[in-house]
């Protein structure tokens, strides 16, 4: 069987690359679009989950990073830099080291998930924890890229958005058309922008009959786009989207306008509730930021804003193993304590409630 070639080779004719572009790939993209009957039953819509945790480093960032690192190499870069809430740093570190160049990553001190920190270290990044938040890290990364010989691979680099738009191509390929509604978590709003562009291009080439309405959700404590102003001290348990001044703010507003889209805010309790529903009813394990897509769907359905039978795609952006501790947290804030039993079949059967043979 033919192996999936990664998004640059699979979509070479629809990306800004040429024979001069050295392709750096870990086989990203080609992620599953999973029907979610449990969510369809709860909402009356036809719901699918685009599981981006299945990418090589466990998040959607790999789609943008294969492009950004390949173009950086084409331009002769020897070192790349990014600011990150965790996933971008993990991805930049993996793709840079695969390409034989250096990655420096700036992360907010104490505010990124352990799995992501481990990845960046494992992939040999120069990782600095900055005493500040993500927005401070991005300011510094931009300054450094403007004044020193390092290439910026945050989503303000247009190559990132280019690579990430391929996720929309995959959805269209599977569904045979665009969905009615597409829902994504929003931090910098780069991915919201990328999907909008991907669907626009599909419509322009006649592959689809409609543009999906793009719905984006921010955590209530970090919701600058919803509030209409910068949030100085953003806060949420969804550390991936703890961002107060989104880099792609203007592009995202334009995309909302174009697609009759929507931005909403979801509080942390609802994010964790959605996290449990997705894990326990659908069988898909994600990090908290990703669960906001599910929470957003349920909120919009409750508000009567999801038409019966509408096709809805939820992007879940990062794998649950990146930040697994939330799965053990119960609604009252304590941790689940798995039952301990003796190494004895009769006792195990009894505790499991198994009777007879
Ligand atoms: N979901 C996850 C798991 C993320 O890591 C991010 C962004 C988003 C959603 C939001 O995407 O920024 O394009 O709106 N993470 C960045 C990072 C900021 O550094 O890993 P966005």
From TrEMBL:
Record field: catalytic activity: O-phospho-L-homoserine + H2O = L-threonine + phosphate
Database matches in CDD domains: Thr-synth_1
Transmembrane domains' residue ranges: none
Binding positions (pyridoxal 5'-phosphate): 87, 187-191, 317
Its EC number(s): 4.2.3.1
Domain named Tryptophan synthase beta chain-like PALP: residues: 24-318
Pathway: Amino-acid biosynthesis; L-threonine biosynthesis; L-threonine from L-aspartate: step 5/5
Record PROSITE patterns: DEHYDRATASE_SER_THR
Molecular function terms, GO-annotated: L-serine ammonia-lyase activity; pyridoxal phosphate binding; threonine deaminase activity; threonine synthase activity
UniProt-listed InterPro entries: Ser/Thr_Dehydratase, Ser/Thr_deHydtase_PyrdxlP-BS, Thr_synthase-like, Thr_Synthase_bac/arc, TrpB-like_PALP, TrpB-like_PALP_sf
Function: Catalyzes the gamma-elimination of phosphate from L-phosphohomoserine and the beta-addition of water to produce L-threonine.
Name of the protein in question: Threonine synthase
Organism in which the protein naturally occurs: Compostimonas suwonensis
């Amino acid at each position: 069987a033919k192996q999936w070639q990664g998004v640059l080779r699979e979509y070479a004719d629809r990306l800004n690359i040429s024979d001069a572009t050295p392709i750096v790939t870990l086989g990203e993209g080609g992620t599953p679009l999973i029907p979610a009957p449990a969510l369809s039953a709860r909402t009356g819509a036809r719901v699918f989950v685009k599981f981006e945790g299945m990418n090589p480093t466990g998040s959607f960032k790999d789609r943008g990073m294969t492009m950004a690192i390949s173009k950086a190499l084409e331009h002769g870069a020897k070192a790349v830099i990014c600011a990150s809430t965790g996933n971008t740093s993990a991805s930049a570190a993996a793709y840079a080291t695969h390409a034989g160049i250096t990655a420096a990553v700036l992360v907010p001190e104490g505010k990124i998930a352990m799995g992501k920190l481990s990845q960046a270290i494992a992939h040999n990044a120069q990782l600095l924890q900055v005493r500040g938040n993500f927005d401070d890290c991005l300011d510094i990364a931009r300054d450094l890229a403007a004044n020193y010989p390092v290439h910026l691979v945050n989503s303000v680099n247009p190559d990132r958005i280019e690579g990430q738009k391929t996720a929309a191509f995959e959805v269209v390929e599977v569904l045979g058309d665009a969905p009615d509604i597409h829902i994504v978590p929003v931090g910098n709003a780069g991915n919201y922008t990328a999907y909008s562009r991907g669907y626009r291009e599909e419509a322009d080439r006649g592959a689809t009959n409609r543009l999906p309405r793009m719905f984006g959700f921010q955590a209530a404590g970090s919701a600058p786009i919803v509030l209409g102003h910068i949030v100085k001290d953003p806060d949420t348990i969804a550390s991936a989207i703890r961002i107060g001044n989104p880099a792609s703010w203007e592009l995202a507003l334009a995309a909302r306008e174009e697609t009759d889209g929507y931005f909403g805010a979801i509080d942390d309790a609802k994010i964790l509730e959605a996290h449990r529903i997705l894990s326990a009813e659908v069988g898909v394990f994600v990090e908290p930021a990703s669960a906001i897509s599910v929470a957003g769907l349920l909120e919009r359905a409750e508000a009567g804003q999801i038409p019966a039978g509408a096709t809805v795609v939820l992007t879940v952006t990062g794998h649950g193993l990146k930040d697994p501790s939330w799965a053990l947290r119960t609604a009252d804030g304590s941790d689940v304590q798995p039952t301990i039993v003796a190494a004895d079949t009769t006792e195990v059967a009894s505790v499991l409630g198994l009777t007879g043979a």
